[in-house]
Design a protein that fits this description.
The structure is a single chain. The protein is an alpha/beta fold. The protein is globular, with a radius of gyration of 18 Å. The chain contains 7 helices and 11 strands. Helix 1 crosses helix 4 and helix 2 runs parallel beside helix 3. 27% of the residues lie in helices and 32% in strands. The protein folds into 2 domains: 184 residues, Vaccinia Virus protein VP39 (Rossmann fold), CATH 3.40.50.150; 55 residues, S-adenosyl-L-methionine-dependent methyltransferases (N-terminal domain of TfIIb).
Length: 250
C-alpha cells in the first residue's frame, strides 16, 4: 500500500493500543496454530505487522524462528521498529520491511505467513497474485494463517464502539461503521476521539475501503493454486490455515 494513500496516516497513533484486545482474545488460538509450523524451514512472515503485537507473539511462540515483519504504514512501522529495537531478544531475530506483502523481497523459502486483520486490503486480482507467489515459497508443512473479519459479505454495519482506553488523564474512544460498496467491498468509517474528563480534545475521522471475503470465496480462489483452506480454532476467531494440498496429506 503506497504511503501517500495510507489509511493509517492519521489513525496509526491509535491502532496499536486499540487492537490489543483482539490479540488478548485470540492470541492463544493464533499461538496454537503457530506451533504446527515447521522449525528451521525459513523465516515466518508477519504480514501487516502493525506495531508488532503479532510479531512478539510469533517470536515468543517460536523461539528459534526468524521473523520478517512487513508493514507499509510509516506510523505503524515506527512503533514496530522501536518495539523490536528495544527488546534484545527480538533485535537479532526480527527484520522490518516497509513494503507491502506483494512488493516485499520475500525469501525463496518461507516457514509460514501470519496475515492478521489484513486480507481485506487486497483486491481479488491482488489476492490471486498473492496465492500464486506464496504457493511456491511455502516449505513442506508451512501455511498462511489469516482471519476473515466480519462481515464477510458487504452489509451495513451500524455505529459501534470498538475500543475505549484510559491512559493517564485522558481516555480514547474508537467508533466504527460501514456501508457496502458494490458487491464485494465495504467503506469503513472510523472515528477516534480523545477526551479529558468530559471535554473532547480531538476527533479524527478515517475512511477506507475493505474487500470482503467469505470462507467459500476463499476456498474458490485458493483451489486453482493447489491450496487448501482449513479452519482453525473457534468459529468466532475466523481463523484459517491456507496450505499446499500435499502438505495437508503429510
Amino acid at each position: 500500500m503506497p504511503e501517500h494513500d495510507d489509511p493509517y496516516d492519521h489513525s496509526g497513533q491509535f491502532i496499536d493500543p486499540m487492537i490489543t484486545g483482539w490479540w488478548e482474545h485470540h492470541g492463544t488460538t493464533v499461538a496454537d496454530a503457530l506451533r504446527d509450523l515447521p522449525t528451521d524451514a525459513g523465516p515466518v512472515v508477519d504480514a501487516g505487522a502493525g506495531g508488532g503485537l503479532g510479531t512478539r507473539l510469533i517470536a515468543r511462540t517460536l523461539p528459534r524462528a526468524h521473523v520478517l515483519a512487513i508493514e507499509p504504514s510509516l506510523p505503524l512501522r515506527s512503533v514496530l521498529l522501536s518495539r523490536v529495537f528495544e527488546d534484545p531478544h527480538l533485535r537479532p531475530r526480527v527484520t522490518v520491511d516497509g513494503d507491502d506483502l506483494l512488493s516485499a523481497r520475500l525469501p525463496n523459502r518461507l516457514g509460514g505467513v501470519v496475515a492478521a486483520n489484513l486480507i481485506g486490503h487486497f483486491s481479488p486480482h491482488e489476492r490471486d497474485r498473492l496465492w500464486e507467489d506464496l504457493v511456491a515459497r511455502l516449505t513442506p508443512g508451512a501455511f498462511v494463517l489469516l482471519n476473515l473479519p466480519a462481515p464477510v459479505e458487504p452489509e451495513r454495519v451500524g455505529r459501534t464502539r470498538m475500543a475505549e482506553l484510559h491512559i493517564g488523564g485522558r481516555h480514547y474512544v474508537g467508533w466504527a461503521e460501514a456501508e457496502p460498496i458494490g458487491t464485494e467491498q465495504l467503506s469503513w468509517n472510523m472515528t477516534y476521539e480523545v477526551y479529558e474528563g468530559d471535554r473532547l480534545i480531538s476527533r479524527d475521522e478515517i475512511h477506507y475501503a475493505w474487500w470482503t471475503l467469505s470462507e467459500q470465496a476463499l476456498h474458490a480462489e485458493a483451489t486453482p493454486h493447489g491450496l487448501l483452506v482449513v479452519p482453525h480454532g473457534p468459529a468466532e476467531a475466523g481463523l484459517f490455515k491456507v496450505l499446499r494440498e500435499e502438505n495437508h496429506r503429510m
